[in-house]
Amino acid sequence: METLEIELPALRARAEMLSNRRAAADAAFVEAKAKLQRHHLEADNDADDRARAKLEAAVAACALTRDGYADALKGVQTKIADTEQKLVAERAAAQRKAASDELARKLDQVERALPDYLNAGRRLADTLEAIHHHFETAQVATFVRNGQAQLEVAVAFAAQDIRGMVRAIQDGAAPIPAANPGATLNSTPEPAPPTMTVFMLRSAHYRDQDGRKRFAGQWEDATMPVATAQHALRLGVAVAVTDPSRARLRGARGGDFSPQAPDVLDLDAMEEPKSVPPVEPDPVLREAGFIEIDRSAEARTIQISVPRL
Fold first, then answer.
1. What is the tens place of the pLDDT at every residue in 235-285?
2. How many structural domains comprise the chain?
3. 157-179 pLDDT, tens per residue?
4. Are residues 91 and 10 in the same domain?
5. CB-based contacts of 12: which residues, under 8 Å, 6+ apart?
6. 49-129 helix and 2-42 helix, angle to the nearest 10 degrees
7. Range of the domain at 132
8. Nearest to 92 by CA among 172, 201, 194
9. Is 80:12 a contact under the CB 8 Å cutoff?
């Protein structure tokens, strides 16, 4: 199989090269034929036999070259098809062998585990039969021995059938066993993306974690991806569900919404306001050089004269 995998790319590269050359040869043939046609239409066919013969030879040579490349390309394409079929067959054979080996390995595990199970069952039955005076215990011992006998016979028949299946899978007479669906059912599901619930102050559209467009009505709770919810909070479109306004306004609109209304916002299209640059102080005040003096610690007494009545 490794040889075919190396040979196939080389054949495809050669086919591409031959295809390009055939196309170039075909273009040369068309051009040579056009020149011959112009000669027939414009030249003196009786007096200029040498030129006509030269043009005809050029047409024949171009046709021969084109057909040669076409035949070679056809041969390479046939080889490519044969190689691909062989490669598919070898890969299928490798898959069948791997599947048959895996089945044989599992059967070997069963056959190795069976004696341990039977021995443990016999020990259990012997222990139970020692309490023969107890009816239920004696019945359990009988059940264990009967089950062991039936199980041993059933496994023997199954093992013989599976051995034949191993050979049939490797020979291609039986299909490769399907994967165990239980492995998919028992797999751990991926955790859902985190979401956040906010209280909407404005109606808005947003995208959920699956990319679907959703509508959130004014004065209603909305659950959305965390990044979108935080974006809405920063824009002032929503507040946290702990905000006091939620208790007062929630449901005040009674579900009277129009998702297509012109005042409905698009959270995904809204940009957050950029921070305001600091305001430079007045240049006159800056040049005056005023100094702030802290006089809070000084004791001050103010006397106010009040006229007596």
1. 999 999 899 988 889 888 888 888 899 899 999 999 887 665 555 555 655
2. 3
3. 998 999 899 898 888 888 888 87
4. yes
5. 80
6. 160
7. 108-177
8. 172
9. yes
